[in-house]
Amino acid sequence: MARDPRADILEDDLFPKPTQRIHRVHAQRSDDGTIHINTKGGMFGINNRQPIQLHKGKIWHFSKEEKHHLFLATAAFTLALGLLRVGGVFSVGDGDAGTWTAILLLSMPVMLIAVGPAFLLHEIGHKIIAKKYGCWAEFRADPGGLKFGIILVALTGILFMAPGAVMVAGLVTRRQNGHIAIAGPAVNFGLFLIGIPLGGVILGLSGAVDSADLGYLTGSAINLKAMIYDVVFFWIAANLGLGLFNLIPFGPLDGAKIKDWNESVWLASFATFAVLAVLWFTGTFNPIDLVISIAEIF
To answer: Which is nearest to 24 in space by CA: 170, 131, 126, 134?
Structure first.
């Protein structure tokens, strides 16, 4: 008796196709080759669905739209970091509003210099590797993430922000996708390592070694040594923290893509950041102590 063809509707496929190892990354491409990036709502003049034409520029290439997004994300991130440094808007009750405002304005450039490279160079690391593999790659700010982060830190003094990400469009293998993902944390690890000797030289030459517990204002005078010390401290802490956070194997974070490519590489990367963070937290190994030891040479 012939097999009833309607059985195909009911029965599972006994020979499923193997999982494809080719990824289409962030592809929202129309027939004319235009890529559309959805940034989930507008903010600071950002178009929430800006059409982007493919370009054939060099790997180190930033379009006008990308520069706009980088500037706005960096500005919003700097404001949020300044609010973090002063403990949010409600901490103004601990002193006079003028002093609070002055410390906020002084904190913003400190945090920009200290934390800005950790964020910007992390994203640029993704961008360069993606373009190396022939993909379109540009940074796009996340207006919702910026808005939420600023409101949260202003009200609570706690910072949790997703400023945006490098959007990638193109066909990549699982291995190439892993390379693109690991580039960001690799940049943070490099900046973390560089920050230790460089920070030691800066603290030694500036004489800011003993300025950890000093405020930015001494009476009406600005304490530059305290600001310099915080640049070094937050540079090291931010790169370690940002690298560790992005290696969490969950959702859109880098860790999930790295683990999908190679679990051993992900585990080694995550363990490196995690062990350093735990050692610092427990006081077993404090990189700032090493910075100070280098600074004392000068």
So the answer is: 170
Residue 72 domain-assigned (yes or no): yes
Q: Do the domain assignments include residue 14?
A: no
- Asked, for residue 144, whether it belongs to a domain, the answer is yes
**Total number of domains constituting the chain:** 1
pLDDT at 7: 45
Q: What are phi and psi of 167, to 5 degrees?
A: -90, 130
Name the residue range of residue 119's domain: 23-295
- Over pLDDT 90: what percentage of the chain? 47
- Cβ atoms of 36 and 49 closer than 8 Å: yes
CA angle (155 as vertex; 151, 158 as ends), nearest 5: 85
Q: How far from 110 is each of 71, 116, 283, CA to CA, in Å?
A: 17, 10, 25
Query: How confident is the model over 13-30, as pLDDT tens digits?
Result: 444 444 445 454 554 544
Cβ-proximal residues to 149 (8 Å cutoff; 6+ apart), any chain:
76, 77, 80, 159, 160, 161, 162, 163
Q: Residue 15 domain-assigned?
A: no
238-274 pLDDT per residue, tens: 999 999 999 999 888 899 999 999 999 999 999 999 9
In three-state form (DSSP H/G/I as H, E/B as E, the rest C), the secondary structure along the chain is CCCCCCHHHHCCCCCCCCCCCEEEECCCECCCCCEEEECCCCCCCCCCEEEECCCCCCCCCCCHHHHHHHHHHHHHHHHHHHHHHHCCHHHHHHCCHHHHHHHHHHHHHHHHHHHHHHHHHHHHHHHHHHHHCCCEEEEEECHHHHHHHHHHHHHHCCCCCCCEEEEEEEEEEHHHHHHHHHHHHHHHHHHHHHHHHHHHHHHHHHCCCCCCCCCCEECCEECHHHHHHHHHHHHHHHHHHHHHHHCCCCCCCHHHHHHHHCHHHHHHHHHHHHHHHHHHHHCCCCHHHHHHHHHCCC
